[in-house]
Design a protein that fits this description.
Elements (H helix, E strand, L loop, with lengths): L8 H26 L1 H26 L17 H7 L2 H32 L6 H9 L6 H23 L15 H13 L1 H12 L3 H9 L4 H29 L3 H6 L11 H11 L3 H28 L3
Helix pairs in contact: 3-13, 4-7, 4-8, 4-10, 8-10, 10-13, 12-13
Length: 314
């Protein structure tokens, strides 16, 4: 007796649909597990192309006499780095950069704490002042430099003449004796905005019970500041210190727009010196050597920043 092995067409269709559905779900599952890697791969590739590759090329060209105008160059080894030690422009640039950085650090810390303590008080209109003090941070640095350049050229001299103030009747950024103060003033006017926010956040983290207990014990404002506020602001002080240090060492756009490094190279920072050697003197190899030195300095500072930050981790 023969058995009937006829397959039901409907059952076959259902089985085929189930197989396709399982295949689709499997592909979808693989996609769901791996699609997030695209968001990681894309920035990594961009970082490799636009950061690490040029950095490696910069290290290589620092060992050559490449002019940047042709593809021809000669390998000179460490000659560029030896020339740095006898370069008077480099030494002058290091001097200004160091003094400018120290002024930026002291100014941002002192002014930031003073203004933050003022904004931390319960006063009418304090919200307006908080916004006003942070406004310079949203301005383009180049735009800010060009604006203040016109202020120093035309605004302040006219004010000095009207008020009879001899000091203001001159262009402060054109005078070798006053250009440093003018540049530092503009840098602090914009740079102090972020430290104010950081210090204000630190002050608002102090428990009210501690301040009230100190007031009951008869502590003065100075005693509260030194014994309570400063210890709470230590992490903020460390952060602002590193930020100001890096900003001073890498200063370029503000100086370029405001003074162009003048007068007589008195305000030429290391970043601007690299630009001048590369794009004005066509000494790309030597400019890359200076950039490598600056990179190593910033790398050391970054390592110190990481080490200091770990001390304040909870």
């Amino acid at each position: 007796m023969k058995k009937d092995f006829t397959v039901d067409p409907a059952a076959g269709a259902v089985a085929e649909i189930e197989i396709k559905e399982k295949s689709r779900m499997k592909k979808s599952s693989i996609f769901n597990r791996n699609w997030a890697y695209l968001f990681v791969i894309v920035p990594i590739v961009l970082q490799l192309i636009f950061f690490y590759l040029p950095m490696i090329q910069g290290f290589f060209y620092s060992l050559t006499d490449w002019t940047g105008l042709t593809s021809n160059y000669n390998f000179v080894g460490l000659q560029n780095f030896q020339n740095i030690l006898s370069d008077q422009k480099f030494m002058k640039s290091v001097g200004f950069t160091a003094v400018f950085t120290v002024g930026l650090i002291i100014g941002e810390i002192v002014l930031g704490i003073v203004v933050a303590r003022f904004l931390n008080k319960r006063l009418k209109g304090v919200g307006f002042f908080r916004t006003a003090y942070f406004f310079p941070a949203v301005l383009s640095t180049v735009t800010l430099g060009l604006i203040f350049k016109q202020v120093f050229n035309y605004g302040l001299p006219q004010i000095g003449e009207k008020l009879g103030i001899e000091f203001l009747q001159q262009n402060l950024i054109a005078n070798e004796k006053t250009v440093f103060l003018g540049v530092l003033f503009v840098a602090l006017w914009q740079g102090v905005a972020m430290p104010i926010v950081i210090f204000l956040s630190g002050l608002q983290s102090i428990p009210d019970d501690i301040l009230e207990a100190a007031s009951i014990d008869g502590a003065t404002n100075w005693q509260k500041f030194t014994a309570i506020e400063i210890p709470y602001l230590l992490p903020s002080l460390s952060m602002v210190f590193i930020m100001a240090l890096k900003a001073g060492l890498t200063a370029f756009d503000l100086i370029y727009a405001l003074t162009g490094g003048g007068p007589s190279d008195k305000t030429t920072t290391l970043g601007l010196l690299v630009y001048n050697y590369a794009f004005k003197n066509n000494q790309y190899g030597y400019a890359n050597a200076i950039a490598v030195v600056l990179f190593l300095v910033i790398a050391v500072i970054s390592l110190l920043q990481i080490k200091l930050s770990k001390r304040y981790e909870v």
